[in-house]
Amino acid sequence: MLSFRGYILETLKQQAEDFTMPSTQETRKNLKAVDNAIAQQMLEGLEVPPDVVEEMKRAARGEIEIEEGIRNTVRRFTHGKVRGERPLP
């Protein structure tokens, strides 16, 4: 089973191969996939930071290229900005 990050990266990479501005139907489908990925993380007791969610939705709507969304998300993980300044549970 892929981790959340792995799932998102694989999904975004697959979509990046044939990037075009999504139709309304494709946009709905993409946004539903984002919602499902977030719900899965919640079921596992994890929280997806709001800025990562917004980045995923921007990519789903075609506002940014998939590669840009991947770079921005990886940059957040690399610099430790995803978790923020919260104590560990």
CATH first level: Mainly Alpha
How many distinct beta strands?
0
CATH architecture: Orthogonal Bundle
Helix content: 55-70%
Mean pLDDT: 81
Oligomer: single chain
Main sheet, how many strands, which sense, barrel? Answer: none
**Alpha carbon gyration radius:** 13 Å
What's the order of the H and E elements?
HHHH
Structure description:
The structure is a single chain. With 89 residues, the protein is an all-alpha fold. The protein contains 4 helices and no strands. The protein has helices at 4-16, 24-43, 50-61, 66-78. The longest helix has 20 residues, at 24-43. The model has no long low-confidence stretch (mean pLDDT 81).
Helix and strand layout, with pairings?
Blueprint: H1 4-16, H2 24-43, H3 50-61, H4 66-78
Helix pairs in contact: 1-4, 2-3, 3-4
Question: Which features would summarize this protein structure in a list?
Answer:
89 residues, mainly alpha, Helicase, Ruva Protein, domain 3
Summed up:
The protein is an all-alpha fold.
